[in-house]
Give the backbone structure.
Amino acid sequence: MKAIAVLILLMLCMRVLWVPINIVNLIPFVKKAFPFVLFVIFLGCFACKKKQRPKVEPISPDVYVSILNTGLPYAQYWKNGEIIDLSTPNSFPHARAIFGVGKDLYVVGQASLRNDLYATIVGQYWKNGIVANVESSISAKELVDIVVSDRNVYIAGSGRNSMKNIEATYWKNGVAVRLDEADQRPSEARGIFVAGNDVYIAGSLTRENDVAVYWKNGAVVNLGDPGRTSHASSIAVSGKDVFVAGSENVNFYARARYWKNGVGTFLTDGSEYGSVVKDIAVSGSDVYCVGNVLYSDNTSAAVLWKNGMPQILPMGVSASSIFVFNNDVYVAGEGFESPLRFALYWKNGVPVKLTSGSKGASASSIFVKNP
């Protein structure tokens, strides 16, 4: 339409050029043509109005949840409504943590050799469904957390050293890395975080008591009061700040606690029977902790703390893992509806069941990414 308007204007101008330049002759013509030209220009402008872009539907992320199941001959994880089995030649397998990068999906855990429930526990991991053991100078007995960063695979857990002792360890691309004091006393590693070239491990060392610590590049940093029992279960780093989650005993009862740069904060007032933080995440200026609170009547509730403020998660008895993605908060854990318990996760507080509960399952870890 715009082209038609321009063409008509051009023709009118050509007509004017043929008329002898006489203002008297030109005025009647302009008066006659003006309304028509104005109408054509209006139509052209209307027709050329910018078209609106079609609405683009947002991409739904993939949600992965590792599942702890009892009595099954295979480990499991959940993806977008589907339970996926992970085969192993060993018995009583458990999936403890899950991590995805690109097209690769990693699951870590442990299993027992056949006909032996404890003495022959071995750490295992699955990459895209293919199972493997971690064998190094320290062989893996239990694998609890995993991070993939800059094509390097970091796995935290407990290993058996050459002295046949169990010690907190992490493995980088299958090679064991020793942690301060971990080989000298009972120790455990429970969480891992990688920031640039720095590797952080959360766990505990047994001195007079079990004491919450973390290791940065193998060097130990003490957190808990040496006169109390404490444990660290998860770690997150934001800029120069190091956040560690866990619990510390007060008057013989565990209380949910996290430490920021070594300074501890209790998340409960002590009126409950016990409480613990299982995982921690930092997004912007917000600090998220998840865990559970145990009451004197032996009931338990899954809890999400955001900047110290608690939110009871419906249907939940415990929360084990948190992931913040595109401003949405995903929490994995365990639910209960008499007489069954089941694995589930919450998205912004709304529960999503993962199993029927027939196997007594719970969700151990959650990871979210774009397809």
